């Protein structure tokens, strides 16, 4: 599917080759005409994509979840006294994107954060509530219990690299997405020295994580290949087995109208030969067929990468760290936009996040895991906001917090605290 496709509000755009649009609001939806050759910028391409309301609603909540996790990590950084001063958080407000200040943000989530005054230090502090501590403990236990799976995930990621190596800094970017423990350098890499090896790179202060011994003798089977087997084995399967050999699962949100020529291009792309993410390939020629084959392999790699993540989602900037090492000579973000039936790209929260569409249904993972379930509990507390608290207690907490900050102001020690 070399042409970029996006449908929004009755407008069908094929960027890269043509722009096709409706002649008039009163014309039949299938009555289109071709205008002059034109191209769009990458930002225009992102802006013109079709929005999926389910994923957009999910990302609305994830915007706050990311900020909550950042503060939670600061609180838990000191295990002897898991707390952080409001003054310190206020200095980090801009970096943490707390637009209305630290205090205002913390008060929005009383089920997660508890603000209290420390008389000995003459300043207000913040700690996690019992519910938030319980969620954090549950996630840590789930991560530790899944260490064998984590080792296999890392082996699979390294196996998709032609050199069987990736920069350690790239792994640091996605350690939470892969369900790695905080100390994964020791508990995963060093503890499995017969599988992984750290090497010095040509760049200063850069290390490469290398797979020792190569791919296991039995090899790996990609997630999409497992899906093909399941689909072909269904009793009511009416699909052509030959077509299924190279196909990916496609799904589109309600309201997205697919034109005939778009469906034809998808069918043509599905029939292209498939090269798995763990297969070794030679150098591709710069022909049209070679470029299309390279694109399909790139889709197979990023599809497998997303399948290996705990929540089947990742920021585009993070997965782009692996692009060169996976041999992807394409714009990763445009690749997601070119295949809206496989991936969904959201721009909520000033970050581009991609979801594996087939893994979700109604905003939740179809096949959840223990780490995801723990993180989902924290998201539920974020969504809960201030609801569920007795009105009297809620007002008392606000009054208490205001008095604490007022005492600070009187001593002229915390002028940085937000009003």
From TrEMBL:
One of its GO terms (molecular function) is RNA binding. Residues 400-419 are annotated as: Disordered. InterPro entries: PORR_domain (IPR021099), PORR_fam (IPR045040). It comes from the Eukaryota. Pfam families: PORR. Residues 51-386 form the PORR domain. PANTHER family: ASSOCIATED SALT-INDUCIBLE PROTEIN, PUTATIVE-RELATED, PROTEIN WHAT'S THIS FACTOR 1 HOMOLOG, CHLOROPLASTIC. This is PORR domain-containing protein.
